[in-house]
Amino acid sequence: MNSAFSGPTLELPAQLKRGLQAGHPWVYRDHVPRDFRAPSGTWVRVRAGGYTAFALWDESSRIALRLFSGERAPDASWIRERLAAALALRRALLDAETSAYRLLYGEGDGIPGLTVDVYGPFAVLVTYADSLDAVVPWVVSALVELLKLHGVVRRARVRDGEPPRLEVLHGRSPPRDLIIAEHGLRMYVDLFVGQKTGLFLDHRENRRFLGKLCENKRVLNLFSYTGAFSLYAARAGASRVTSVDISEPAARAARANFELNGLDPEPHEFLAEDVFEYLERARRAGTTFDVVICDPPSFANSREQLKNALRAYVRVNSAGLRVLEPSGMYAAASCTSQVSVEAFRGVLAEAAVNAKRRLQIFHDAGHAPDHPVFAGHPEGRYLKFIAARALPIA
């Protein structure tokens, strides 16, 4: 224990002890004494029923305290140890044909509120609260020491509606046409305007799993973004892949990714269209597919939006199932953290009833293994991915 610690000490409710001991890294503001004040980024010693830990205080976030260590207030060497441990795990998990991965998954790697994604020779850092500014220089220093990087950049937090911005924290800025490798496939990644930090790294193993089942299949990829699921399907020998995303630049990028991998784009479709409008048009035309992939964006950012999110999931999956061939394969995903695994299964059951199908689930997964989760922090698992056969009603 760090007996020389000179920062403030906070007494928390004793009932928090078991959860914090089990690895839950968050303390919400309503569990903190109302009169406590400190600048964001202040290290605080917290005590709960005899349990002691060191946390980072945030003055404005709903999460008032993020717990880092039960031993001492973190410093540069402590952060480097966590990064080195995270890197060792990734090197054990990832193959040599993959150059894009999540090096640091915040809470799952013991540095809550901060993620680092690696795209070849560049690292992208994201922070989720002002308080994390206190550790950013230590993280950058550790990244430069541990990896051979051309640059470390940070996705700056912006207000809703504003375009994302990159800050260069070390080295140089990445090119707009950066190419990464994933299980032997190559993809263009735009770290400046791409969703997430450029690519949905959490679906890497889901893409590989599903792709192997698409040989000679007609595949529909909804909310396709830059076509990562589509690439795996085409590489496996899908006869036709239709990629649908409302973004014209994303549709162009998907086509470019096919060409980058020597896959002839001509037998396939890359449509910039609203998914709901496309599905209604396909249903009316009697167009069907052997495989349908439905991976929409998050439909909720808070618990208050949960009911609306569940209704949206039912609606889109009902529509997706209606254009699926009898006994076809349906793959559905949800990245909405407020939607539990059980709730998502319920959504799919309701959607199947609407489409007059029965869903026979044969694969139920989450995010890739470079997104580890502590057993005491179930909120860390946000991604749900279910693959099923859509059987006719018996």
Fold and architecture overview:
The chain is of the alpha/beta class. It folds into three domains: 9-69, Archaeosine Trna-guanine Transglycosylase, Chain: A, domain 4; 76-180, Transcription Regulator spoIIAA, CATH 3.30.750.80; 200-392, Rossmann fold (3-Layer(aba) Sandwich), CATH 3.40.50.150. It has helices at 17-21, 76-93, 136-146, 204-211, 228-235, 248-260, 275-285, 306-322, 341-354; strands spanning 9-11, 26-28, 43-48, 51-57, 63-69, 100-105, 114-119, 122-127, 151-156, 165-171, 178-182, 185-189, 218-222, 240-245, 269-272, 289-294, 324-334, 357-365, 384-392. A seven-stranded mixed sheet has the order 15-14-13-16-17-19-18, with helices on both faces. Strand 6 and strand 7 (114-119) form a beta hairpin.
Enumerate the spans where pLDDT stays under 50 for 5 or more consecutive residues.
Answer: none
Q: How can the largest sheet be summarized?
A: 7 strands, mixed
Structural class: alpha/beta
Number of helices: 9
Helix content: 25-40%
Output the helix-strand order.
EHEEEEHEEEHEEEEHEHEHEHEHEHEE
- Shape field: globular
- The strand line-up of the biggest sheet is 15-14-13-16-17-19-18
Instruction: Tell me the domain tally.
Output: 3
Average pLDDT number = 94
CATH superfamily of the largest domain: Vaccinia Virus protein VP39
Q: From the 3D coordinates, which CATH architecture of the largest domain would you assign?
A: 3-Layer(aba) Sandwich
Oligomer: single chain
CATH topology of the largest domain: Rossmann fold
Q: CA-to-CA gap between the ends?
A: 63 Å
The CATH first-level class of the largest domain comes to Alpha Beta
**Beta fraction:** 25-35%
Number of strands: 19
Nearest-angstrom radius of gyration?
22 Å
